[in-house]
């Protein structure tokens, strides 16, 4: 029946309208199983009932049929989430007769649940007049079809197509890119030419197309400089780094050279642009590291701006009469920066990622943002909606009560924001006066010009990868010295932890391609650089040379260490680099060296390596993935990724206790450190150094000042006894709620 299965799936997937697709499904399923009736019921969890959506074989009139979750055989299948196969349905104890269906002529009954990621979406039923049990093959066939149908239905519901009823008020859900609430009219950005719509075309005059391209590059450079200057007084340099990255790429001889070469092959400038940008973008998209993966979007944005300037001599000015919620296909930094801040209430981007530079910029500007909500039902401007950046929900046609409730929450949120921002320069002291060190994660933009150091205690993690990836070859030692010197200079005499090149496998370089079957567990981090000691030595020497004469202390962090032999090899090379630099720079200081603890094996080796290293930095993102065997970027299993999983908390406690016993300074530099719930648990487990993105600093410092360390220790001790991560979340949320801090994780103040 494999061919029949494939035939049904292909025919259903070709139909754009979901209701028609369901009709095609029941029609072809009847034919495939040679049954006389097939029906699809979908779940309405809000009203606790199933609604008949499509049928072949049942005849009923009037309103759409509703069956309660507790009613009949269909309700039984929904409750048990298991298939039901009976020869004569009317004899089953749960049978219920629905006269309006006209199903009394059918005896044989086979039904299976429609389930997607543990969520019950509905039930599919086939029936026949002749009493019989359906075969195992037929049952397996229907179960397989239901699984395929579940994916389609889940996708449509996620995109905002509410399948069960016409609702006056509806909600669609995306991903939160920036917390906050926005209430107001929708405004769709003016349509611009899209790179993906550019068709193959040959250049009529190659020299003119080359000139055309170079003029577009200069226009884009001018725009990026203007936008950066325009935002310079409002944002820290980390948020502005995207404009420096764009400028760097446009000035890169490799990118320009590749574009010119493509035109010289005979392609028109716009077609050449599309091909080259897609090659660069695809290189990033293939990486598993979420931060580097979303640089793919940055490259696409750069291509979009170049395409715009190929077609226009100058950028259009966006004029708005009133504040709006911006709805765009894909949010870009240039678009975000071009809209007057006082006219921008919130942003809905139908595509993109929460770690794109546009999302980073929206967080830096404090603009509530949701990514991935498919609002295809909204056609006109000026339609008022509610954007909930905490949950990622967008309320369409909100009721008067919903409007009133959210307006109250918005007023409370603005009160909280003002309070937090006014205290951002206050020290991070718990209410019982225990000092907490707040550090900055930096390096995503490939630029070193960060000036956020008046409110933090240093850089806890400087990523060096981007400056390697945007080059056409491995950067020279002198080039790296210049980059690292800027970082140390801007840190205002505070310590800077620089991580050595964390590349390989899933993060390959365009000039050093690598392919592996399982890159996430393969040739990456220290494994890659130890296999290329020349690259490692050049980088470490550059860091040491950059530190000479600087007030800021350099610390070197080694990624992906999984055993003592790797550590010893790296330390030996660092010692060699130090002696080499000391020959020409006698004032160089030997830097402290630590490991990024992200591989679980190192938890058990901490006592062994205690005298070899100077500090430990815990990378909770990768450590969690390795402990739970979950790739958080894989949509099939990402819901299993849980940073407050009890086993993760127990591992963190073991790390802290081992470091304290061995007197090794330890910090946390994963996303957990920048999460209000996470910070409660980390402090309770004993961690006193937290490194986070700049957007989280103000909130986390405020939460710390309102928290008592003794209470947090009790909270953490209770958390590690829980069996479910959801119980841990509730425990921490209740703590926030009791102290009027829940407004940091949900709308409102109280």
From TrEMBL:
Record-linked Pfam families: GAF (PF01590), PEP-utilisers_N (PF05524), PEP-utilizers (PF00391), PEP-utilizers_C (PF02896)
PROSITE patterns: PEP_ENZYMES_2, PEP_ENZYMES_PHOS_SITE
Gene Ontology CC entries for this record: cytoplasm
Keyword Magnesium attributed: yes
Any one GO molecular function term: kinase activity
EC code: 2.7.3.9
Catalytic EC class: transferase
Biological process annotations from GO: phosphoenolpyruvate-dependent sugar phosphotransferase system
GAF domain ranges (all copies): 17-163
Catalytic activity: L-histidyl-[protein] + phosphoenolpyruvate = N(pros)-phospho-L-histidyl-[protein] + pyruvate
Location in or out of the cell: Cytoplasm
Keywords of this entry: Cytoplasm, Kinase, Magnesium, Metal-binding, Phosphotransferase system, Sugar transport, Transferase, Transport
Domain of life: Bacteria
Co-factor requirement: Mg(2+)
InterPro entries: GAF, GAF-like_dom_sf, PEP-util_enz_mobile_dom, PEP-utilizing_PTS_enzyme, PEP_util_AS, PEP_util_C, PEP_util_CS, Phosphohistidine_dom_sf
Family as reported in the entry's similarity comment: Belongs to the PEP-utilizing enzyme family.
Designated name of the protein: phosphoenolpyruvate--protein phosphotransferase
Species this protein is from: Vibrio breoganii
